[in-house]
Amino acid sequence: MDLPNRHTTRAKWHNYNDGMYHITLNSRDRVHSFGEIKAGEMQLSELGQALKQYIESTHEHYPYAEIPIFQIMPDHVHLLVNIHQAEAQGQRKDDACIVQSSACIVQSGACIAQSSAGTVQSGAPSLDPKMKKVSDRRGYLSTVIGGIKSATTKYANTHDIPFAWVQRFYDVIIKDEIQMENTINYIKSNVANWEK
C-alpha cells in the first residue's frame, strides 16, 4: 500500500545528523500524563519518572547523542539534544538502540532471541525494502527522538497507562551561543512560567 506523502516540518537544508537542537514533544490532546506542577515544582507521575529515566539513559543507547538539559512538564517535554555525527560514523543509525519485542531483542543489528533455555543469537534482522528506504532517510536526531517516544509508549502500554504522543515533534536548530543560552534559560524557567 502506498502511503500518502506527508508534509515534513524539518528544515530541507539540514540533515539532522550533527548539531544542537531544542526539541519539544507533546502528549496527544495535551493530557497531563507526566505529572503536575504543585507549589512551583514539577511532581512526576509514574510515566513521567519512566520518561526521565529514558532521557537520562539516551547516551547509553545512542553514543552519538547527549541530552545535557531537559524539562518534563505535565503535558510536554523540552530537550536540548546534541548529536555528534563523528561518533556515529560507520554505525547504522538504529544499531545503538535496543528494540524489544516478545520474541527478540535487536542489538547491534542482530536478533537475540530469548527463551527460558538461554539466549540464542541469530543473523541481522531483515527490513522490508520500503522500510529500509525510510530508515536510510532518517537523521540521527529522528532516531533518538523515536527511541525515547517508543520506550515511553511501551512503558505506558505495559503498565496499562492511557497515553499517546503527538505524532511529530517540534525542533529548533541551535545556530549560535546566544540562541543556546536563551534556549537553556527557557527550558530552566519552564516550570516557573507554567502559570503564565
What descriptors fit this protein?
disordered N terminus, 4-stranded antiparallel sheet, alpha+beta
Kindly report the spatial arrangement of strands forming the biggest sheet.
Answer: 4-5-1-10
Number of strands: 10
Beta-sheet strand percentage? Answer: 25-35%
| Helix and strand sequence | EEEHHEEHEEEEHHEH
SSE class? alpha+beta
Our Rg estimate from Cα atoms comes to 18 Å
Average residue pLDDT: 75
Structure notes:
The protein is α+β, with helices and mostly antiparallel strands and 196 residues long. Helix content is 30%, strand content 27%. Strand 7 (104-107) and strand 8 (110-115) form a beta hairpin. The longest helix is centred in the last third of the chain and has 19 residues, at 140-158. The N and C termini lie far apart (46 Å).
Q: How are the SSEs placed, and which strands pair?
A:
Layout (H helix, E strand, L loop, with lengths): L18 E8 L8 E4 L2 E4 L1 H11 L1 H4 L3 E8 L3 E8 L1 H4 L10 E2 L3 E4 L2 E6 L2 E4 L7 H9 L2 H19 L11 E5 L2 H12 L8
Antiparallel strand pairs: 1-5, 1-10, 2-3, 4-5, 6-7, 7-8, 8-9
Helix pairs in contact: 1-5
Write a concise synopsis of the structure shown:
By secondary structure, the chain is an alpha+beta fold. The chain is built from six helices and ten strands, in the order E-E-E-H-H-E-E-H-E-E-E-E-H-H-E-H. A hairpin with a 2-residue loop joins strand 2 and strand 3.
